Amino acid sequence: MGTVHEIYITSEGSARMRKVEEAEALASMGLKGDRYCERTGYYSGWDECQVTLIEAEELEAIAADSGPQVLNGEHRRNIVTRGVRLDDLVGHAFRVGDAVLAFDRPRPPCAYIQSITEPGMTRALAGKSGICAMVVQGGFIRPGDEIAVL
């Protein structure tokens, strides 16, 4: 169906996202070391997502339009996918590497993203900002891992 292109985590809500070569998904919690798994995210306790995903193709389209820089974690999403339409995951569980995730809800951009990145970020990500997923079964996720609907 598609693959994991990149993985990003950060330990705190406003801290810069860092690219990692693998992440451990923890059942019912999120990605080990990430702000929402650690309960240190800006939205912890009221509007958090265990794992967020966004399409590489959408980010590349934003960059091609000379919009805000969203290719190096500025999008504030955990997993950048390639070759999969995230809309196709709605209502499904799906395998990502060794982990099993399940669609939770769309993740619209917020003004907070713009406040810690650059002007125009919220507008640039509108309609392209990805989804939230829950971790059903833990496991490791790495760039290049297949994403497949179960």
By helix and strand content, what is the structural category?
Answer: mainly beta
Order of helices and strands: EEEEEHEEEHHEEE
The number of E-state strands comes to 11
Helicity level: 10-25%
Number of domains: 1
Strand fraction:
25-35%
- Major sheet summary line: 7 strands, mixed, barrel
Low-pLDDT segments, ≥5 res? none
Q: CATH architecture, please?
A: Beta Barrel
Which topology does CATH recognise?
M1 Pyruvate Kinase, Domain 3
- CATH homology superfamily name: PK beta-barrel domain-like
Nearest-angstrom radius of gyration? Answer: 14 Å
Lateral arrangement of strands in the main beta sheet: 1-6-5-9-8-7-11
Number of helices: 3
Rounded mean pLDDT score: 87
Quick tags:
mainly beta, M1 Pyruvate Kinase, Domain 3, 3-stranded antiparallel β-sheet, 150 residues, 7-stranded mixed barrel, 35% strand
